[in-house]
Design goal:
The complex is a heterodimer of chains A (178) and B (341). Chain A is mostly helical and 178 residues long. Chain A is built from ten helices and no strands. The chains are: A mainly alpha (178), B alpha+beta (341).
Chain lengths: 178, 341
């Protein structure tokens, strides 16, 4: 017993303290992603970009775009939807560890494209994005409620709100995986 | 001694008079930061598996009778909700989820897949010569099965005396329903694929001797239904249609079939327009057989439904039930309340 304690004490004394300023991430091979200084987004692996990835074709109605407050209004709605969802205890966990800067941009592009406000969608397709997320229909309902809240705050008439949802609802087949 | 005491006294003096400016500056700075964040979302109740201490310390969330988190038993969410407003429909006269008169393909209760939901309702109809009261409840199992039970009391008031069955004679009908969603989704999925459900409604008249005397062949019978429901979001329209294979006379209040008439296919449907998340207006139509030759008419109504809260839905309608037991022009008001979890 005494011998063990003495050996342990001796070993502790013999241990060398690690050098000051050791880069532990490098020591353990932790890769860190840096945000792009221009876009503030994390880089993603390349993929073929196409408006077909948006999951549906666009409307062609100037009045509808106007009801959403133009591109600026659409961008605000998309960003607000993401913010509400990040703060929504029902679905916040799904958004953790994803790039919210990028999501806000691509979601805004998708809405803008679907509403026919003249944007191109540069994100990935719905099935690829949601493949590993395990989204349920209840999660989708929560997101719809947050989107409705965002549209309501912006003053989009209900019938116009439903026209955007009409484009999104059929995508549940790619989004809901369990 | 003195040179030892001096620094000690200095320390004590420092402790007795700390720089007050530092401490006071702290609080408003923290407050300012908290204000800048301005959380719009009400604090969420902690999950049920959090430690009791954590739950006790957490600020109270939005309070509802059963909260919104429900209960989790094994892999089943009990009364946890999750449906979009009004997508559970409102209770029909026969206790199933639907639009008041017409059965829909929707599954009642607010539960999602692998959840259990409950709903209870009461309906009152005031007609020139009759009064209808019905109440019941249903159990929703996932997005798949709905089991319902309802009791209807049909007060004949003065008409009872004129018909010779007694002043204020009240017909009673019990309905036991089941509905199974076969495929499709009322809200999501392909626009061309509606929610499709099959179902049965077994009804038992509690006035067996009287309905037989009126000419009905049976005092109990079973309806078979095939329903489709789809929310056409681009038009904000909710479309429903149900084919009902039935032999019921006045829903079964006057028994089932007659000496020379039995099962026949009838249609019931509704069309409603969404004004907002919470409000819909619409119209319904329901065809009925006239097995007894009493001038049993088709029924129709125009209605407005409002989801007062996530759980409480109120429906008001103007109904035209045509002729009932030879008393014509039975038009009046319909009110219903439904509580769902």
């Amino acid at each position: 017993m005494l011998l063990t304690t003495a050996t342990a004490a001796a070993l502790m004394l013999l241990q060398q303290a690690p050098a000051e300023g050791t880069d532990w991430d490098a020591e353990f091979g932790v890769e860190t992603k840096e945000r792009d200084p221009v876009t503030d987004e994390f880089p993603v692996d390349p993929y073929p970009q196409s408006n077909a990835n948006a999951g549906a074709g666009p409307y062609n109605s100037a009045r509808l775009v106007e009801a959403f407050g133009g591109r600026e209004g659409i961008r605000r709605i998309a960003e607000r939807t993401v913010e509400l969802s990040e703060a929504d205890p029902r679905i916040a966990a799904i958004f953790e560890s994803h790039d919210m800067v990028r999501l806000k941009r691509t979601l805004s592009e998708q809405f803008c494209y679907l509403l026919g406000a003249g944007c191109d969608y540069t994100g990935r397709d719905m099935r690829t994005i949601h493949a590993e997320m395990g989204v349920t229909k209840a999660d989708m309902n929560a997101l719809v409620e947050n989107l409705q809240a965002a549209m309501r705050e912006t003053g989009v008439p209900f019938a116009a709100q439903n026209r955007l949802l009409a484009k999104l609802a059929p995508m549940s087949r790619q989004v809901v995986t369990r | 001694m003195t040179h030892l005491l001096a620094p000690m006294l200095a320390l004590t003096a420092a402790a007795a008079a700390p720089e007050p400016a530092l401490r006071i500056a702290y609080a408003p700075m923290l407050d300012a930061e908290a204000k800048a964040e301005a959380p719009v979302i009400p604090p969420a109740p902690l999950p049920l598996d959090a430690t009791p201490t954590q739950r006790a310390m957490a600020p109270p969330g939005e309070v509802t009778a059963l909260a919104d988190e429900g209960l989790r038993i094994g892999k089943v969410d009990v009364l946890a909700g999750g449906k979009l407003l009004l997508t559970n429909g409102v209770s029909t006269l026969e206790g199933s989820s639907g639009g008041g008169l017409a059965r829909w393909a929707t599954i009642g209760g607010r539960q999602m897949r692998s959840g259990i939901g409950l709903s209870a309702h009461g309906i009152a109809i005031e007609l020139p010569d009759f009064g209808w009261r019905s109440y019941g409840g249903l159990l929703g199992l996932g997005d798949r099965l709905e089991l319902s039970i309802a009791r209807a009391d049909f007060d004949t008031r003065d008409a009872g005396a004129l018909l010779g069955i007694g002043q204020g004679y009240t017909f009673n009908l019990d309905t036991f329903g089941a509905k199974l969603r076969v495929t499709g989704d009322a809200v999501y999925g392909e626009t061309w694929l509606p929610q499709i459900a099959i179902g049965v409604e077994h009804k038992r008249s509690r006035d067996a001797a009287l309905v037989r005397a009126l000419g009905a062949a049976d005092a109990s019978g079973t309806d078979y239904t095939l329903s489709v429901t789809k929310l056409l979001l681009a038009q904000s329209l909710l479309v429903n249609g149900t084919l009902r294979y039935t032999k019921a006379n006045e829903l079964g209040l006057l028994g089932f079939g007659s000496a020379n008439a039995g099962y026949r296919v009838q249609f019931e449907g509704s069309l409603s327009y969404q004004l907002s998340r919470r409000a819909v207006i619409g119209a319904e139509y329901r065809s009925k057989p006239d097995n007894l030759g009493l001038g049993d008419d088709d029924w129709m109504d125009i209605f407005a439904a409002y989801a007062l809260t996530d759980h409480l839905t109120l429906t008001a309608a103007y109904v035209d039930l045509g002729s009932i037991a030879t008393f014509s022009d039975q038009r009046g008001g319909f009110l219903s309340a439904q509580v769902a979890f």
